[in-house]
User: What shape does this take?
Amino acid sequence: MTIIKYEDREIKEIWSRSKKFWLWEMLSLTYLNELLFLKGLIKTPHSLEPFSIVMKKIDRYEQKTKHELDAFLKELSERLSIFDEICPEVCQHLHYGLADSDITDTALSLQIRMSISEIISRINLLQKTIEDLTSKTGDIACIGRTHGKHAGAGFKSFKIELDHSMALLNTAKKSLYGKFTGLSSPVNEQAASCTLAKWNLLPAPITSEIIPRFYYTNTMYALITLASALERMATQTRLMAIEEVNEVQEGASKNPFASEEISGLARLVKSNFVTILDNNNSWWEKDTSHSSVERIVWPETVHLISHMLLTMNDILINLSINYTQIAKNSDAASCEEPSEISSKTSFEEERESTYKVISEADEVFYFEATSADEAELLYNEGHLYPLEPHTHIHKIIKANGHLIYERHARKNY
Assistant: This one.
């Protein structure tokens, strides 16, 4: 289970035992009320609203039954007995025809959906912080790096990555289904449909005795994609804080401890995807091997991601930017950020010029060399020997007195 340091208050409430029992009760009562109303046994589908759950009774019953839902239903039926005068058959109809997973799986979908809503609110908070930071530093051009070496002006796509994760989460919410299909006894389809509609859930397109676990993989994928984006943000912060770069640091601290924490937690979150995939492999129509795992994996994942989002938000709010060092790094790399139009025009002109020369080439040689200078030297000394095109890694073209050197990756056939 998630250690206290990484717990989120709102997420903790969603995955608390009391919240789970409350969802079980609401789903059970919604179906029961709809069923009894359709049978004409009560006047409205809201007639049965018992007193609050007595947790101690459930705990006591579970010690005997060794089954959490059975203990819960026993406690609920006792509270429903106060309605015997209104409807003597109320306890007989409680959970009648339903499978345990009709309640537990549907409640799980609701808990995940509530958690995603909390996660999205934290993404929005981080997005706002990024926008505020961008508005303050938008005219500062950091040097970009490819393979760790200075390149063109840097391009940070963090906001785009968060937008992508947000889109995945919103799509995943639509695949969080409910289930009221029963077990061996037929359920009342109208009551089942009304129950899911009241909770704004669609019925799972395919069910056995459980909601197939592949329906949950999209949601976990969306969450680990978000974790991966946060990991990259943290990694970039750590790289920009190293002594030789020294462009940012986490507030007053020289060491990027918070970013390192995010990087570490991302590894744990990503590993949970394997567990969710393994849950797809149930025996025939049902087994419960997924149940124990999901009690840990889902709350742990959303707790950690919420913590990571809030931590990254704090990092950016308190980020210390070394503008002097940024300028020094840019000057050292002699990098000027070209405008989009001039860059595009220059590229197109160079490409068209190159194509023209190649099309008028007098000779084409394929050879092995390690640099353009070496290629020209070999050519001038007459040491070039044509090779078969599919074996070359370099090419030199002689056209109109010009030498054009091209380097290619070796191809294996």
Remarks:
- Residues 100-137 form the longest helix (38 residues).
- The beta strands are 143-146, 149-153, 248-250, 319-321, 363-367, 394-399, 402-407.
